[in-house]
Amino acid sequence: MHLDHLSFAAGPEGLDATARRLGELLGTAFREGGFHPRFGTRNKILPLTDGQYLEVVEVLDHPAADKAPFGQAVRARSADGGGWLGWVVAVDDLGPVEERLGRAPVDGQRYLPDGTRLYWQQLGVKGLQSDPQLPFFVHWLSDASIHPSHGGHEVELLKIEIAGDRERVDDWLGGRSDTILHDVDIDWIAPNGQPGLSAAVFSTPRGEVRL
What we know:
2,3-Dihydroxybiphenyl 1,2-Dioxygenase, domain 1; eight-stranded mixed sheet; 25% helix
């Protein structure tokens, strides 16, 4: 189990402008991600070191966005001005997560700009909707050579800050976060309003940046 990526919902300026603004802060440009047909969303991505990446995502005027929990979550966060949507944990086997949460995963795919399709399964977005401090889980089906982190070498995720209850998150993960997640440091802060991912700190060509 490891931290796979962070998701940032586009603000009222739209996907391109939001990604450009964040890229300027981080000292590097986002690349085109693609379209998620099952979720009614599209994204831009920034590959990071250590097999992680950052995505900026926006909801589209697409029927799937009204039905899929992920599309609903993106729409709601963007309507609230945009910002951090959540964090995503990758697992080699979703079976134990399915058993613990009592629900089945959803198939996901993204059409890359070159026409390649990226496949995965995900689970737990409804948990994110009801309690934004909770990550959702992903199991990648496509080859690692096309994972969105491929080519990341300029920006490193140093830590994330979560407003919430560590015990609640540990229960959701199935173990202590500081034990089972070795590739990310988490600072826990008291919620001042809604819980959730509140900030991330990166090492960049321009020095340390907190978003």
